[in-house]
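Holo prediction — zinc ion.
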Amino acid sequence: MNLDEIKDRIKRGLLKLPGKLKEPLTKGLPDYLKDPANYDKIQRALLETLASTHSHSEMMQWAGCKSCMEKVREHKLLMIRLGFKTPAMYYEWKKTMEIMIRGLRDPIGPKNEPAGASK
Ligand SMILES: [Zn+2]
């Protein structure tokens, strides 16, 4: 195949050049974030930054509370320190981890268990 033949085939759609693959959102995550064994630990650490003795019934009250906003700031900082570059990356990671963990711990799932399955 010479170059003109190749060009012709590309034009007619017979030969596809490898397209640039869309980078997965979780690409570039540090290895410890890729390990499902660390999932609970990471989630707990993130939740702890948000833990508060306050309870605000109104969203606006919460948004105006210095202490609660400080916790939100800590939460964001921790996320960045853990290696999440964007919130979208965190949600993608969370989704992926939950699928992986469910697969590891409970391949069938309690609701899909066949009727009469014995333990
Ligand atoms: Zn508060």
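READOUT: The two ends are 63 Å apart (CA to CA).
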